[in-house]
């Protein structure tokens, strides 16, 4: 069953077309990746799914609901980690989780969530004193504290060192193991290959293709490259898509 259905989505800002024609569906229980170059329309697309922006054309359904007209019901089902998310410097880890849990009618046990995500030792640490990886752990915890059915994670590992990135990947797998469907926006092809069941490749505001990482690699036709990587495949697809 598709938990997210995006059909012919369009979004324009003044004279700029951010999303020209995007369609894809996300199945229950999968990690679904959205990849493509800067300015391709990835973040605008997920903002329309989240109900943060109203589409100019097409339709979006989350668990059968319209994120704009059914905003409150959709928000109860979505956990959102934004590309740029900041908390007050002085707020402590436990205070942030306690505050966010108060926004939901049936929140998760934030104390258990704090333990599960390895934050118990930092419960009294102010946000400003957390490392990059710890901030991402807290960001994931805040996205899950409302007991969502779907979590949307936008550029989750940007700026993290290699070990923190790998730790965060394991956290994402744990999120899926909790029964949460994950939509992951990423620039990192190793991340997409290791985590995602399927990928939507977006270029110039359009979906070029939707397929598994393995199929994208197998079908890649890159001149002069005998064994293409996922990065090679996506670069070739987005270059072709941007010239349409």
Automatic annotation (TrEMBL):
PROSITE patterns: ABC_TRANSPORTER_1, ABC_TRANSPORTER_2
Main localization category: membrane
GO cellular component entries: plasma membrane
Gene3D superfamilies the UniProt entry points to: P-loop containing nucleotide triphosphate hydrolases (3.40.50.300)
InterPro entries (UniProt xref): AAA+_ATPase, ABC_transporter-like_ATP-bd, ABC_transporter-like_CS, ABC_transporter_ATP-binding, P-loop_NTPase
CDD domains per the UniProt record, alphabetical: ABC_DR_subfamily_A
Protein location: Cell membrane
Any Pfam family matching the protein: ABC_tran
GO biological process, one term: response to antibiotic
Domain ABC transporter: 4-229
Source species, domain of life: Bacteria
Bilayer topology annotation: Peripheral membrane protein
Keywords: Antibiotic resistance, ATP-binding, Cell membrane, Membrane, Nucleotide-binding, Translocase, Transport
The keyword Nucleotide-binding appears for this protein: yes
Any GO molecular function: ATP hydrolysis activity
Protein name per Swiss-Prot or TrEMBL: ABC transporter ATP-binding protein
Organism: Dactylosporangium sucinum
């Amino acid at each position: 069953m598709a938990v997210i259905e995006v059909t012919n989505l369009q979004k324009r800002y003044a004279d700029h077309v951010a999303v020209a024609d995007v369609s894809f569906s996300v199945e229950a229980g999968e990690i679904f990746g959205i990849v493509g170059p800067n300015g391709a329309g990835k973040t605008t697309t997920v903002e329309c799914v989240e109900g943060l922006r109203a589409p100019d054309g097409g339709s979006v359904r989350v668990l059968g609901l319209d994120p704009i007209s059914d905003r409150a019901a959709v928000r109860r089902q979505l956990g959102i980690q934004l590309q740029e998310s900041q908390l007050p410097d002085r707020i402590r880890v436990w205070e942030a989780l306690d505050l966010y849990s108060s926004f939901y009618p049936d929140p998760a046990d934030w104390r258990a969530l704090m333990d599960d995500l390895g934050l118990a030792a930092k419960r009294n640490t102010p946000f400003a004193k957390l490392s990059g990886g710890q901030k991402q752990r807290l960001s994931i915890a805040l996205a899950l504290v409302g007991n969502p059915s779907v979590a949307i994670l936008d550029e989750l590992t940007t700026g993290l060192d290699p070990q923190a990135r790998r730790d965060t990947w394991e956290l994402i797998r744990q999120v899926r193991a909790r029964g949460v469907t994950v939509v992951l926006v990423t620039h990192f092809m190793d991340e997409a290959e290791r985590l995602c069941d399927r990928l939507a490749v977006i270029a110039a505001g359009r979906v070029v293709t939707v397929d598994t990482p393995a199929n994208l690699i197998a079908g890649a036709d890159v001149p002069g490259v005998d064994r293409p990587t996922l990065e090679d495949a996506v670069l070739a697809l987005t270059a072709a898509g941007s010239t349409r």
